[in-house]
Structure formats: C-alpha cells, structure tokens
Amino acid sequence: MSTLASTNGSIACDHGLRRQRIVESLSREIVLGAIRPGQHLVTQALADQFGVSHTPIREGLIALAGMGLVDLKPNRGAVVRRVTATDVREICQVRRALECEAVRHACGRIDPAELTAIRADLERLLAVAPPFSPSLIVDAREVDSRLHDRIAASCGNAFLAKELTRLKTLFRAFRDSAWVHDEARDDYRRVDEEAREHLRIVDALQANDPRNASRRMSRHIMAGSRYWSRELPEEATAS
C-alpha cells in the first residue's frame, strides 16, 4: 500500500471514530434527558464542545436523525425529539427481528472458546454477592456488548451485520440510561436477570440449536424492551 493510501485510510478511520464518539455521546445524553426535547443542536457549539470541524458534527446529526432522536428541520437545524415508551417498543420490534435472524445464523459460526469465555464472565456476574458496586454494571455492559457484537459479526450476512452495527448505538443508549437509573436507586436486579437471559442464549449457541437460540433471543429483547421503556412517557407531548 502506498504512503498516500495509508495516510488517507488513517484519516478516514480517525474521522469515522470522531463521528461515532459524537453520536454515542449525544444519543446517551438525549435518552438520559440531559439534552431536553425541543432543544436545538447548534453545529458550531457542538464543534467547539467536541473539538472537531463541522463535518463530523453534521454527519453525526444525520445519524441521530436516522435513529429517530432528532428531527432535521429546514432553517431550524437539528431539534431533539422526545423519546417515548412507544418509540422503544417499536425499535425493539425491529431489533428482535434482526437479532433473532442473526443469532439463528450465528449458530455453529462462533469460536467455541469464545463462547466458553463469555459464559465464564456471565457466571462471574451471577456469583457476585451484595453489596454491589458500580463496577458490576461496567462488567455487565462489557459482556453484553461482546456477546451481541460476536453474534452480529458471525451471522454470515454482511448487510444484516451492518444494520445491527448502525443501530447498536441506539440500543446501548437505552440500556445505559436504564442502568443509570438503577445505579442511582442501588437496584441491580436487571444485571442478574440479563445475565441469565444471556446464558440461555449461549446455551443454545453452544448446542448449535438455531431455533432455541432465536427463541431465547426474542425473550431477551422483549424483556429489555419492558425494562428500557419503564422510565419513559407513553406519548410525546407537544413542545
């Protein structure tokens, strides 16, 4: 590879990482309510905040619009939408269709050693006794991301994997927001529930049972939908 091509590839990678960092940060703040519904996201102010040019900001706002978190309005720029319980349920319907298909095709494609390692991490989460520390959520977040990422990467369908990658920032913003509320209340029950759901998915993957893997994934996604939506209003109010 030429030096120029290598340099261009590095620049593109850096640009993509900056854009992803912006999308992850803003999506999390919107879902948490730190950025309020109806608020205008000003390109220059965001560029100053993140220390970047306008280009990754504009691209990030387009990505957020695609996720349904902002509306791009003519002459008004990006306006934050109110996220409702209905939004979460509808998004999770789509997620369930995608992830059930992915896990079905991932059976037999994931390195057994990697599944064994994920199982061990899940069992460690379940073995933790109270009082719990905030590091428990950090560990749970890591193993959750690792399992779902491995399933997407192993599904054998590049378009499906790309779509899951595109939407995972939104899924994880919902997850992290719900866990922030739980941490504030010192309530870690969902960590235990989710670890058990993940273990059942791993069981099916290790047994190379596509039908059961899909069924377990469906139950996991629907449990997450109920959990993620509980703090949100049912419908958006006029801003």
Largest sheet: 3 strands, antiparallel
| Rg, alpha carbons | 19 Å
* Low-confidence parts: 4-10
Helical percentage: over 70%
- Decide which structural class fits the backbone: mainly alpha
Description:
The protein is mainly alpha-helical and 239 residues long. The chain folds into 2 domains: 3-80, Winged helix-like DNA-binding domain superfamily/Winged helix DNA-binding domain (Arc Repressor Mutant, subunit A); 85-229, GntR ligand-binding domain-like (Four Helix Bundle (Hemerythrin (Met), subunit A), Up-down Bundle). Helices cover 72% and strands 4% of the residues. The protein contains 9 helices and 3 strands; from the N terminus they run H-E-H-H-E-E-H-H-H-H-H-H. It has helices spanning 3-32, 43-50, 54-66, 85-106, 112-127, 135-153, 158-184, 189-206, 210-229, and strands at residues 40-41, 70-73, 77-80. A 3-stranded antiparallel beta sheet has the order 1-3-2. A hairpin with a 3-residue loop joins strand 2 and strand 3 (77-80). The chain is globular and about 55 Å long. The N and C termini lie far apart (53 Å). Mean pLDDT is 88; it is low at 4-10.
Summarize the structure.
The chain is mainly alpha-helical and 239 residues long. The protein contains nine helices and three strands. It folds into two domains: 3-80, Orthogonal Bundle (Arc Repressor Mutant, subunit A), CATH 1.10.10.10; 85-229, GntR ligand-binding domain-like (Four Helix Bundle (Hemerythrin (Met), subunit A), Up-down Bundle).
How do the strands and helices of this protein lay out in sequence?
Blueprint: H1 3-32, E1 40-41, H2 43-50, H3 54-66, E2 70-73, E3 77-80, H4 85-106, H5 112-127, H6 135-153, H7 158-184, H8 189-206, H9 210-229
Antiparallel strand pairs: 1-3, 2-3
Helix pairs in contact: 1-3, 1-7, 2-3, 4-6, 4-7, 4-9, 5-6, 5-8, 6-7, 7-9, 8-9
